[in-house]
Amino acid sequence: MAVKDKDRNVIAQNKRAGHDYFIEETYEAGIVLKGTEIKSMRLGRMNLKDSFARIVNGEMYLHNAHISEYEQGNRYNHDPTRARKLLLHKKQINTLIGQTQQKGYSLVPLKVYLKNGFAKVLIGLAKGKKNYDKRETLKRQDAKREVDRALRERMKG
Q: Of 47, 157, 58, 55, whose CA–CA distance to 111 is shortest?
């Protein structure tokens, strides 16, 4: 029996999010796409760098996510950085409205992946890190790396 790998269908990841923010909660949202956008995404031509989510008039939108134009799309191609609507339950959106109005909180896309043939976005409720928080995280990662390296060396010898 094969083990199903969750990250096998990941299209794009926001690697800077973990460095720049404390992720407090995550939400899975559907995304409304045009035909050429999903085709381009399936080819892995998406970038979440500098993207963010915003709630406008009770609906959530993904801004600045770059999906490259589909090469065979000709005149039906899409605008690469247009705002795309995210699909969440009304109750979840109302909860997020209250939480993002607190100082320092924002909505950050963490990764985009395919689930049962549909594109999904993992949105994180994030609080921005200060510079000293970022340095502390880097120190912790370096220490863990050193411990792991020492254990590996000890197991070999």
A: 47
- For residue range 59-110, what is the model confidence (pLDDT) as tens digits? 999 999 888 887 776 777 777 788 889 999 999 998 888 888 888 788 999 9
Helix (H, G, I), strand (E, B) or coil at 146: helix
Q: Is the pTM of this model over 0.85?
A: no
Pairing mode of beta strands 21-31, 84-87: antiparallel
Nearest residue to 42 (alpha-carbon basis) of 123, 121, 118: 118
24: phi then psi, degrees, rounded to nearest 5: -95, -40
CB 80 within 8 A of CB 2: no
| Helix, coil or strand: residue 60 | strand
Task: Cite the DSSP H helix spans in 1-157.
Answer: 16-20, 35-42, 90-100, 131-156
